[in-house]
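Raw record, unedited: Cell division protein FtsA
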Amino acid sequence: MKESDIYVGLDIGTTSIKAIVAQRIDGQTNVIGVGNEPSAGVSRGIIVDIDKAASAIRKTLDQAEAKSGVKISSVIVGLPADLVSIDRCSGMISLSDSTQEIGNREIMDVAQAAISNNLPQEREVINLLPEEFKIDDFDDISDPRGMVGSRLELTGRLITGPKTIIHNVRKAVANAGVTIDQLVVGAEAEGKTVLSDSEQDFGTILMDLGGGQSTAAVIHDHELKYIDVDHEGGQYITKDISSVLNISLADADSIKREYGIADAQYAVVDNEFSIEVVGQSQPRKINEKLLAEIIEARLDQILGRLKDKLTAVNALGMPGGIVLTGGVASMPKIAELAANTFGMNVRVYVPDKMGLRHSSFALGLALVNYAIEMSDVERVIYDIFATNHTASAANLEPEPEQDPDQYQEDAPVTDEGNDSSFFSRRSQGQQQKKRKKNGFNFSLKNFFE
């Protein structure tokens, strides 16, 4: 879809599937259509029923097509962070003719060498992000094309994921009748849209609080340095409300969205509303304070576990603080609760595009922006494995249905202009800016020290 400057971001979430159709005109990105349908076949961010997921994706795309007037043929898809790994990689090739200018072919060859040398077993490449090229003894080259030399080297970050998860995403999208233009780890894309240039540079924690799971990522030096997942999200808050108040899940979700407050200290006891209790003929009155206490109890658990994981790698105290996205991030007073939990500056990101002014649309918009802003070199490298995947997509066979419980053991990665709300409970002190570590085998825990 790049030929017509139309880009479609597809966010396959646990509770909803969103498609953002955008058009690039004269350097300006305009959103021209949105699809947003209930999800199916997805549990805790992972596709567990390909047919159901494909049907839900198709409904979302149909809605986006109707609103945009564009026939969608390919999409940019966000991948969940489950068991994603980011590893330093390097590759080197000899150039047979030192007088011939380096072109796309040589870039693809050196990238393929880096992939072959560093690809872990039983994993699939999602992307290779180049950090530096070196020609003979000259380093710090971002684009070697047009240059000459006898040896070309590349260092970068190799992003891989479990074959089963990626396969099921590809199969579901193919069954929905479209091709994948690009697969992107959600946090990688969101970091470039949600965070300012300074936040990406000095270091910021990005938290996507979704319906099925909550993801914490650390962006530093404009790179995704760490990512981990807690397999609880907004669905668990809804289930708690349903269980405690003895109401249906649909009613629990409705009152959560209409009356829910994340931090109970801001709720008012005198604010009451009626609920339909299962087994009772008459509605029952409950107050805002009780509902907020139920919500806060679950959020305390989710945020507490994420805090423990971030503390273990010394990631707390990033100068950029914490930025929240995802559907749960739209809940009133969530920034205050998170700020109190982490003792850091917290703000909620809200897209500033018409029709997308809700934190749940952050990923879909970020996927579009990520594809638009890819450099020529990044696109050349991505096409190495994208072409192979496109050619084999028609022959994909579904993997056995997956039990999301198998992913409960989290595997963390080792390796200004926003319409946002901001809240702080402590002032930020000046922190020394940390630069990249030299060498490949650095410890992530030591990286943040």
